[in-house]
Specification:
Two copies of one chain form a homodimer. Chain A has about 250 residues and is of the alpha+beta class. Chain A folds into two domains: about 70 residues, Orthogonal Bundle (Arc Repressor Mutant, subunit A), CATH 1.10.10; about 160 residues, Chorismate lyase (3-Layer(aba) Sandwich). Helix content of chain A is about 30%, strand content about 35%. Chain A contains eight helices and ten strands. In chain A, strands 4-5-6-9-8-7 form a six-stranded antiparallel beta sheet. The first copy, chain A, has a two-stranded antiparallel sheet with strand order 1-2. The longest helix of chain A is centred in the first third of the chain and has 17 residues. The first copy, chain A, is elongated, with a radius of gyration of 22 Å. The two termini of chain A are about 30 Å apart. At the A-B interface, helix 1, helix 2, strand 4, helix 5 and strand 7 of A face helix 1, helix 2, strand 4, helix 5 and strand 7 of B. Chains A, B: GO terms for molecular function: DNA binding; DNA-binding transcription factor activity.
């Protein structure tokens, strides 16, 4: 008891907070592809559905426009720029594999070369500094729209054979599996959100400073050997990371 | 064959790209808590370790400072602001549970009330519009530093009893489990990266526009009934989302 009474009651919520709540609900619906044809209802209808004033709805739509999720045009209304795509965090999959059915992934190969491992790369790839490693950088597009800027370092024996493959159309994961003759094992993934620096923003075709995912991923063969370490920059206005989490038994 | 020759070779990489690569490597090391005492080596040492020029290192440290990861002080050098904390995306856990051992999580309860479900909230909670639901908004701090702004909507029968619990110190998940007398089942999670609006930024104590995680999470009881839907805003300069992904068998 006594739980509620100690909290400050706010009957008049600041408008900015109401707008944020409305934006959260709308983002969810946009992500779930809830608007047929990508056209949102008018502000009054949205307000009734969301339990919000027209002002809060207008402000929320402004936030979503800044996120690059919707466009607003006089006489037309508010449209979803493009449905956000889901990239599963449940299992290890390449981008082209994940987006099969949503369009064609093509890669601009910006770097594909053998280099000497710096100490930092050597650490991550579990080789010696100065050892040959293969570096691949690709700008990945879905139907001509940039989605992801991927830098990969691969161990030399596998990487050299990956260099011979069709890096314009294929996932590196698929190529590694072809080269090694078996499935990959697991990956350790760290997901960051960062403001895009000017160079990254230009390549990904987003405003400088736009929030993007920065993902560090180390991929291992089934035996536990690390084969590929990557830094990915992914447009967050176009891709959502999704996972199903299970609670499992209590610890201890 | 013919793989490499078709790619444009770039021997002179633009400095901004080199800086981004160096920043990626350093972010990884900061996340892995690789600098004892949080003090980074000088630019020359870092450059040798990372295989980069002092200029590229300086520019990379500038990017990381803008991300809020490091501070630079004349005569002292570059320090990690605070180690980035990992929040697992492998299993369902509350923030206080995840951060046990890293400090004390306390929650400023900004809203804790029974409200009528709007159509949008009713959809997500699988109740009828107008039904009572419980809304809780908390600003969550780790050792007095804001980490996360969480808005939860709970089904009324569970939520009313959650309102009586100690929401200042406890995870809502733990309270739900106490109230229902069993473990939670699973959650469906969608992770977005967005630029913080001014109000959120002020509450989380980050610059307006800073990249933050926006997470939508629906949590289910073991029988499959949805019990809690949440919108979380999480500081991305302080928290990294981590997962181990398994490849599994080939589809089809």
């Amino acid at each position: 008891m006594g739980g509620v009474s100690q909290y400050s009651e706010r009957t008049a919520r600041p408008r900015a907070e109401r707008a944020r709540h409305v934006a959260d609900l709308l983002r969810q619906q946009i992500t779930d592809d809830a608007f047929p044809g990508g056209l949102l209802p008018d502000e009054g209808t949205l307000g009734r559905h969301l339990g919000a004033s027209r002002n809060a709805v207008r402000e929320a739509l402004g936030l979503l426009r800044e996120e690059g999720l919707v466009t607003r045009r006089r006489g037309v209304g508010t449209s979803v720029v493009a449905p956000k795509l889901g990239h599963g965090l449940d299992r290890l999959a390449g981008l082209a594999e994940t987006l099969a059915g949503h369009g064609t992934v093509t890669n601009e190969v910006r770097v594909a070369e053998t280099v000497s491992a710096t100490a930092a790369v050597a650490d991550r790839l579990e080789v010696e500094p100065g050892d040959d490693v293969v570096r691949i950088e690709r700008l990945r597009r879905l139907d001509d729209q940039p989605l992801s800027l991927d830098t990969s370092y691969l161990v030399a024996d596998v990487g050299r054979r990956v260099l011979d493959a069709d890096l314009v159309h294929r996932d590196v994961f698929a190529v590694i599996e072809e080269v090694t003759g078996g499935r990959l094992g697991r990956a350790e993934v760290a997901v960051h959100a960062v403001n895009a620096d000017a160079g990254t923003a230009r390549l990904l075709d987003v405003p400088a400073g736009a929030a993007v995912f920065a993902i560090e991923r180390s991929t291992f063969l089934p035996g536990g050997r690390v084969v590929d370490v990557e830094s990915l920059r992914i447009r967050a206005d176009r891709l959502t990371l999704r996972a199903t989490l299970h609670r499992g038994p209590a610890a201890g």
